[in-house]
Design brief:
alpha/beta
């Protein structure tokens, strides 16, 4: 049917040209025929398409409140209604919001890499986490972990054409979000198959927010302790960690990566120039997307 429509448009264009007697037509403003041809070209040429970012909200049962999120839908999502996509959940850092990743150029880079066939199309979900550290707060506090790992995943898989299962779900984050991505992948096993920690922040017990609770509660939310207690779960994950060499959190991230190696948890480690800044993160968005693409395709080795 698409080919027939294209042929019809071309035939109509030929008829218009024939009526001009074969002479060179004067310059004119685009008319209806130009608009039709352009629309057809955009439908048949995926390189001309762009993804889009939409603002959405849903009711989280775990938080008992409506929560906003942004979602990136890749080029072709609205056109090919039979295709399903893997999903990447990206968490923002402390003091930021659900627009952080978009402001860093996520959508622009995703479009560029997809259109140049460097990565496969994927859906990217960017939720709002306030300054929660993405953890279930101690002593019966708000369940920010369940909100992401259960409520949000259910919302996305019930409302969008995405593929279910951990092998088709990745989670990553910046700073506080990196901590959140690591602990969620370990505290909610079987939800995510790959994790990325960008500029990982690791709190010691004495410097953690009060909602981490007492020492025993803190350990249930601390990635350092979790990888020791849940080593076999960690070994099922594809793991990426990067941080800037000038980042104040780099020493603890290096210790954590050494711990992973001692536990024989395979990971991709990157210590790059830079600090804990937007410039550092925006310069590596393409690197992150290439990693998640490979992880979702099953091309990143696990332990």
């Amino acid at each position: 049917m698409r080919l027939q429509r294209v042929l019809g448009v071309l035939a109509l264009a030929a008829a218009v040209s024939a009526c001009s007697g074969g002479t060179t037509a004067p310059q004119r403003s685009p008319g209806p025929i130009d608009q039709v041809v352009r629309a057809v070209e955009q439908r048949i040429d995926p390189a001309s398409a762009q993804g889009r970012v939409a603002d959405r909200q849903f009711h989280s049962a775990s938080l008992d409140r409506d929560m906003p999120y942004k979602i990136y839908l890749p080029p072709g999502y609205d056109r090919d209604t039979s295709r399903r996509y893997p999903t990447l959940y990206l968490l923002h850092g402390f003091g930021s919001s659900d627009d952080q990743w978009v402001n860093l150029g996520l959508a622009t880079e995703a479009d560029r890499l997809i259109r140049s066939s460097q990565i496969a199309p994927l859906v990217v979900v960017m939720p709002e986490g306030e300054n929660s550290y993405w953890v279930d707060h101690a002593n019966g506090g708000p369940r920010w972990g369940a909100y992401v790992a259960r409520d949000l995943v259910r919302e996305i898989e019930g409302g969008y054409r995405v593929m279910p299962g951990p092998r088709n779900r990745a989670i990553g984050g910046i700073s506080m979000g990196a901590h959140g991505a690591m602990q969620l992948s370990l505290n909610y096993p079987g939800v995510f198959g790959s994790v990325g920690a960008h500029s990982l922040v690791l709190r010691r017990f004495g410097s953690a927010p009060q909602f981490f609770g007492e020492q025993v509660d803190f350990e249930e939310r601390d990635p350092v302790v979790l990888v020791r207690e849940r080593t076999e779960i960690a070994r099922t994950l594809a793991v990426w960690i990067d941080i800037g060499a000038d980042d104040e959190w780099a020493p603890l991230a290096i210790e954590f990566e050494n711990e992973l190696n001692e536990l024989r948890i395979t990971n991709q480690w990157h210590l790059w120039p830079g600090g804990h800044t937007d410039q550092y993160w925006s310069s590596h968005v393409a690197d992150y997307l290439r990693y998640y693409d490979a992880a979702l395709a099953g091309k990143v080795p696990h332990s």
